[in-house]
Amino acid sequence: MKRLLGVGLLSLGLLAQARGQSGPALPATPPGAATHTWGLAVDWLPLLASGYHFSAERTIGRPGGRQTVVLTPQLYRGPVGELTSDRHEGNADRVRGFGLAAQHRFYLGPRPTPLAGTYLAYGLNYQHFRLDFQAPSWQSELAEDGLSYYQNRLRNQTETIDRYGATLVVGHQVEAPGTPFFLDIFLGLGLRQATSRTTMPSRQFDTTSSDYGHAGAYLPMGFRLGVHL
């Protein structure tokens, strides 16, 4: 996590420096420049948790305005990996889920094009996960003598998690020169709560800050690649 935070801070600094060295400040929307009103992007870090996050950004108010709204539908489907959770048994443990995040952005300073530059943002999010996994547990089983005995062995288990939270982030969105494609890098602070229902005596997926059932403070970070429309 410290390495990811360091990479994020370094990337933001390099992007800000590159923007500052590009020449004198230009008006927010130069005469004759294309006025973007939409940005569509994919966040790549959630792929490490078998997650697929697709973002749609829309300007608020006048064309080329500094405020935008970002909606991010989320889909989870795939294996549980060691980078996400301490609880995983090869490809036997699987996650399925969905979510939605909403964010309000404020772009800062003069911008040569709409939907570009450094921004501050706050947002809310909700996620629902179902984990199918294997773990040993005690259970009454019928024996050959017709009696029931408690046996402890590896069994199929499930855990269902509902998680919601709020975030405050700073980011930088830069468009590749001469193209509508852009890179968006962000990091910040977040707080979330989670409820869990499981067939095990205790929760299984809340051991690390990247785990599906983690609650409390965390560092939201990521990078999106997308296109302006």
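The above is record 1. Record 2 follows with the same two-line structure.
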Amino acid sequence: MFFCLISLFSQEKEKIISSVNDRIEIIDSYMESEMLSLDPEEFLDKMAHHGAALNGYYERDRLKKIVKNFGVPTAMVVTTFYFWDDQLIHVNYKQKEYMKQKNEFGRIVNDYSHSYVKFESKHYFNKGKQIDRKVVGKPLKEITLDRNFIDYSRRMKVLLDDKFNNRNAYADLQGKWMNTEFPDEYIIFEETLRFNFRNGKFIKKFKVKIKDEIMSCSSPNNNYVYKYKIESLSKYELVLQNLQDKSSSPVLYRKEE
């Protein structure tokens, strides 16, 4: 009986893995996916040694794939996340070690334009749990292996979905906005980042998240979140109501071309 249960479990797992592989092929075959990118400051706590990028791929307004590139001193780490019905089904993790070359001084240096897959691991998930892992090669000793793929993919999905679902609002926000009541104060939006200035001097930087017409601005230096109601937003005018100070009047900003 025990061995029968093991056999049934193994058969069920192989069936799930086969289904996941089929779905991976379907996702990779999408020809008209809409790509959305996050800037490094939007998804990294610390900057990469040699570049970083995170792209989300959407099909019919649903996230299907995330590709993250993170450069470390010896390699480019590439992690690809696959989603089906908004659930993580697969992660492909690669450590692509840089090739070596001689520079003009005869020193051996990294050739960042050429690399090879030193280590690869494929992870299969079902109903929020990892059910299998396949490994090829040996990981580089100086790189800490990523393990908590489920939590990380959820956090990145939230960031991407927020930016995707509010992409029109973020697009209209981009640029420099002057405070009409206090002309010495202005704000600049770049992607999902907000920069406050006064008298031409930089004051603060915030990460911006928009949901249900509420703009949340969080500072990397503390846990406090400033919240504003977007009363109106066009390509040329922005009206914000400070939700922490409901007695204050809405502030009108005009975009500076």
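The chain has a mean pLDDT of 90.
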